Fold this sequence. Notes:
Elements: H1 2-6, H2 13-30, E1 37-41, H3 47-54, E2 58-62, H4 66-78, E3 83-86, H5 90-96, E4 101-107, H6 116-126, E5 127-136, H7 142-155, H8 172-181
Parallel strand pairs: 1-2, 1-4, 2-3, 4-5
Keywords: Methyltransferase, S-adenosyl-L-methionine, Transferase, Ubiquinone, Ubiquinone biosynthesis
GO molecular function, one term: 3-demethylubiquinol 3-O-methyltransferase activity
Organism: Strigomonas culicis
Amino acid sequence: MAEEWWDKSGNMKTLHEINILRLDWILRLLTDIKNKSILDIGCGGGILSESLAALGAEVTGIDLADNLIKIANSHSSKNFIDVNYRNISAEELSRTEKNSYDVIVCMEMLEHVPEPASIIKSCSSLVKDGGSVFFSTINRNLKSFIFSIIGAEYILKLLPVGTHKYELFIKPSELVNQARMFNLELMAY
């Protein structure tokens, strides 16, 4: 599975391709991440975590999937990239590490959890005052249904069928309202 996760032309090709866009977005808003403490929530196999660490950030990647944390640890060790990977939820981490991170990234993860507000609340607790939180998720609209589910899962077979559930997609207005509810100030969307 580790080989699949890090095969840039395999099943995770799309994640590798959008990783470039993720980094560009983060760097446009922050300009410099060197020595910043960054938390990657839902880090998966570590694609974004490793990219951030390679730019000089002090990265912690968390995920509930133990097998993905093992893949991430294995890959970062082989490539001599220092990332602290942990098998822990954002909610659990927020109980012990309040105001600990300069930057939090939560990319393409909220649409996979039943209670995204719980993650957003945890981000608000984990980020330092004056820090930044980045969310990226799939909009709940017809276009996303067609492209992300019908196209990507059924027609092009880029993702396993059932990867996404339309009812868990999040409208931008919902994300904005939840972020504001937990005192996160909006910079851009």
